[in-house]
C-alpha cells in the first residue's frame, strides 16, 4: 500500500479514492518483516482495511511514512498544538472567550499567560488579538487555548497587535507561508522588511514601515493563492518598488 | 414497449467555477447547457441550540428560486439534495456544528435537480468538508416513443413521458437518490440507471479535471 | 476593522482605492429577458423581473403595479436568515422602492390592460449572493438594468376578452422607462470628518453614518437617505450630490453599453446568459463541451440486471418450499399468512426452549418475590393469584 501511496504523491486526489491496506501479495517467509507504520494526516481516513481520501487536493508525503492531503479551504477546524490568532470576544469569570474562526469559540484561562497568578492578572480586553496554541482540541470538547508552553514560557505567544493589519487568507496559503523553506516568505523578505505573524487558522497580522506598504503586502498576499511564483514576484515589485507613488491595484 | 431507441445520449456542454464568492467557505457555480446554479456552503460553523445534534453536524439545504419565495417543489428538492449530501458527507467528524448549503437557481433550462446536485458537490469539495465519496446528478427523460434522452432541456422535459433523476456515487457508481416523475417500465428504469452510471463517469472525470486545474499552480 | 487614516487628508483604503473610487462594476445578463447580474467588487447581486396580470389597486385603476422584493439569501452572509424579514432587508427594500417606484421612472399607466380590471404587475426579485458591502448600490444597478432589459408579452383586449401572445406570436414589449435612477452610497467616519464612496464590508462595519443619494443622469435627485445618526453639514451634502452626479453618469453609460452589447448579441443569435459569460481564464473555472456518452454496453447491463432481479420462476422456488397458495376463507375475503409454511423456523425453536425452561422458573420467581419485601420498608402484599404478578405497595 505504501508504494501505491508513494506513486500518487504530488498528484490530485478526490474524495472516494481508496488505497487497499491489506497485506502484501507475497509474504517472504525467510526475511524478517518489520510491520510498517503509516501516519495519515488530514484528508486521509482509515476504514476497515482501506485508506480513504476524504478531501480533494494534492497528496503530500514526508519521510518516513507520513501522508496527508494538501487542500485549499477557508474554514478552520481546531487541532491540538496549532498556533492561531484569535480575537477576544468576551470575559466571563476566569476565562476569556476567543474567536478563532472555528465552529465554536475557544476558551482561554487567565492563568494561561506567562507569569500570571491569581493576584497578577494579565491585562486582556475584549477585542484584543491573541496569539495562542491549542492545548485541548477535539471534536467532542470545547477547544482550549493557552499562551504558555509546557515550561510556562510565553515563547512568543500572548496579546499583540499594536497598529498592524489583520486579514484572512486561505488555509492552504497559510501553510505555504509557514512551511520551513517557504518561497513566498523569502520573496517577501527580499521585497520589503515587515513584521509578519501567521496563525494557522488563516489569519495573518502584518506591520511594516508605512501604512501604504502594509496594505500593498496584504493585498499581494491575498492574491497569492492564484498566482504563480513569477507572477507574484513581478506583481510585488511593480507595486512596491517600481512605482510606489502611483496608484496601485491588484 | 420493447422499443428503446437510445440515440440521443449526450450531455450538454457543462462548465463550473469554484470559489467564486468571497464570503462562503465554499462556493461553486455549475452550468449544464443554459441551466445554471450557484451554490454556497458555510461550515462547520456555530449551530443553534435548537438544531444541535450531539454526534454529528446539522446539514441544512436551502434552495432559492429565481422568482418569489420557496414553495413545496423547492422543499422537496431540498430534501433530495440534503439526503444525498448526508449520505456522502462524513458528518460525524464535526459534531455539534452546522453546515449550510444554499443553492440559487440562475437559469432553469431543464435537468435542474441534477444541476443542483452537481453544484452542491462542487461547493462541498471547495469547502474542504470531509466526504466519503463524490456524487453527481444525471437526469434522463423518456420520450413518448420510448427514446431516452439524457440531460434534457426544458422543452424536452415538457414533452417527455417520464423524467428520472439519479444521484450516483463516485466509488461504485451506485444510485444514492432517485427522483422520478411519470410512468415507465422496469426495463426503462434499469436502462436509465445504466445510462446515468455511464454518464456519471464523464462528470466525475470533469470534477477531477477541474480540481487538477485548480491546484495546477501549487502542485 | 482598521481604517488607517494618516494625519493629512490623504486616506488609504484597504483595497488601494482612492476616496471617491468605485470598485470594479460588471454587468451581465441571464439567458432570458429581465435577468441581470451585477458584480461590484466582490459584492454580487442578481435581479430577475417577472410579470403577471392582476386586478389593479382600487385607488389607482389605470396604473400597473411595481413590486420589489430584496432577498437576503443566507448565501450572501452567514448573518442572513432565510425567509425572515430583518431590519436590513426592510431598509433596503424601502430604499429601492423609493428609488425606483416613487421616482416615477417607469410609466405605470402603460401597464394597464383593461382599466379597473386587469393591469400588469411587474415584480422585481433581487437576490443578494455575496455581501461585501454597499448592497444598496449593487441592488439598484441590478434592478434598473433588469427592468430596462425586461420584455413583457404583448396583449390585446377585444371587448371582454384578453389575449396574451406568446413570444413566438408577437414580439414582447419593453417597459417604458423615462430615466434610470441609481443609488450612490457615501460612508462617513469620525463624525463626518472622512468620507468614502462605495464602502466595502470592512469599511461598513466601522462607519459612523451612511448617506444614500439616488440620482438620474439628468442630475435629478430621486431619493436621499441618511442613516447612522450623524450631523451632516449642508456643504457635505452638496459635495456628495456633486460626486453622485459624476458617478451616476459613469454607471449609466456602463449600463447602456451593456444593454446595447446584449441586444446586439441576441440579434446576431449568439449564445447569451450566465453560462456564456463564464470567465475562461481563471484556474478555478473549467468548461467541457457537449459529450457523447458511450452506450455500447448499456443495453446489455440493463438486460442483465433485469434478468437477475426477475421474480424467480415457480419451479425453482418449489424446491424448498411448497408453492404458497392464498387461502380464501370466504368469497370476497383475501388473506395472507394462514396456511402458509412459517419461514421463521428459528423463532419457534426458541419458543419451545422457553417452555422447557418455564417449568423450572416458578421457584426462582418465588425467591425473587420473597426478597423484595425485605428491601422495602413498607408492607408488601404478594398476590396469591398466579395470573397477576403484581406487587402492591401499601402506603
UniProtKB/TrEMBL annotation, chain A:
Keywords noted in UniProt: Cytoplasm, Exosome, Nucleus, RNA-binding, rRNA processing
Keyword Cytoplasm appears in the UniProt entry: yes
Origin superkingdom: Eukaryota
Any one Pfam family match given in the protein's UniProt record, by short name: KH_6
GO terms of biological process kind: CUT catabolic process; exonucleolytic trimming to generate mature 3'-end of 5.8S rRNA from tricistronic rRNA transcript (SSU-rRNA, 5.8S rRNA, LSU-rRNA); nuclear polyadenylation-dependent rRNA catabolic process; poly(A)-dependent snoRNA 3'-end processing; TRAMP-dependent tRNA surveillance pathway; U4 snRNA 3'-end processing
This protein's GO CC annotations: cytoplasmic exosome (RNase complex); nuclear exosome (RNase complex); nucleolus
Primary location class: cytoplasm
Domain K Homology: 164-212
Example of a GO MF term: RNA binding
Localization per record: Cytoplasm; Nucleus, Nucleolus
Xref: CDD domains: KH-I_Rrp40, S1_Rrp40
PANTHER family: EXOSOME COMPLEX COMPONENT RRP40, PNAS-3 RELATED
Recorded family membership: Belongs to the RRP40 family.
Protein name from the UniProt record: Ribosomal RNA-processing protein 40
Annotated source species: Takifugu rubripes
Gene this protein is translated from: LOC115246482
TrEMBL record, chain B:
Compartments it resides in: Cytoplasm; Nucleus, Nucleolus
InterPro entries hit by this protein: ExoRNase_PH_dom1 (IPR001247), ExoRNase_PH_dom2 (IPR015847), ExoRNase_PH_dom2_sf (IPR036345), PNPase/RNase_PH_dom_sf (IPR027408), Ribosomal_Su5_D2-typ_SF (IPR020568), RNase_PH (IPR050080)
Keywords for this protein: Cytoplasm, DNA-binding, Exosome, Nucleus, Phosphoprotein, rRNA processing
CDD domains: RNase_PH_RRP46 (cd11372)
One GO-annotated biological process of the protein: U4 snRNA 3'-end processing
GO function terms (MF aspect): DNA binding; RNA binding
GO cellular component: cytoplasmic exosome (RNase complex); nuclear exosome (RNase complex); nucleolus
Main location: cytoplasm
Domain Exoribonuclease phosphorolytic, residue spans: 11-130, 134-198
Similarity comment text for this entry: Belongs to the RNase PH family.
Record note on quaternary structure: Homodimer. Component of the RNA exosome core complex (Exo-9), composed of EXOSC1, EXOSC2, EXOSC3, EXOSC4, EXOSC5, EXOSC6, EXOSC7, EXOSC8 and EXOSC9; within the complex interacts with EXOSC3, EXOSC8, and EXOSC9. The catalytically inactive RNA exosome core complex (Exo-9) associates with the catalytic subunit EXOSC10/RRP6. Exo-9 may associate with DIS3 to form the nucleolar exosome complex, or DIS3L to form the cytoplasmic exosome complex.
Annotated protein name in UniProt: Exosome complex component RRP46
Taxonomic source organism: Takifugu rubripes
UniProtKB/TrEMBL annotation, chain C:
Keywords: Cytoplasm, Exosome, Nucleus, RNA-binding, rRNA processing
Occurrences of domain Exoribonuclease phosphorolytic (ranges): 22-153, 179-245
Bias type Acidic residues, positions: 346-364, 381-395
CDD domains: RNase_PH_RRP45
Domain of life from the UniProt record: Eukaryota
Region annotation Disordered: where it falls in the sequence: 310-395
Chain's gene name: exosc9
Name assigned to this protein: Exosome complex component RRP45
Intracellular or extracellular location(s): Cytoplasm; Nucleus, Nucleolus
The keyword Nucleus is annotated on this UniProt entry: yes
Keyword RNA-binding: yes
GO cellular component, one term: nuclear exosome (RNase complex)
Organism classification: Eukaryota, Metazoa, Chordata, Craniata, Vertebrata
One Gene Ontology biological process: exonucleolytic trimming to generate mature 3'-end of 5.8S rRNA from tricistronic rRNA transcript (SSU-rRNA, 5.8S rRNA, LSU-rRNA)
Recorded family membership: Belongs to the RNase PH family.
Pfam families with a match to the protein in the record: RNase_PH (PF01138), RNase_PH_C (PF03725)
GO molecular-function term, one example from the UniProt record: mRNA 3'-UTR AU-rich region binding
Ranges of compositional bias, category Low complexity: 323-333
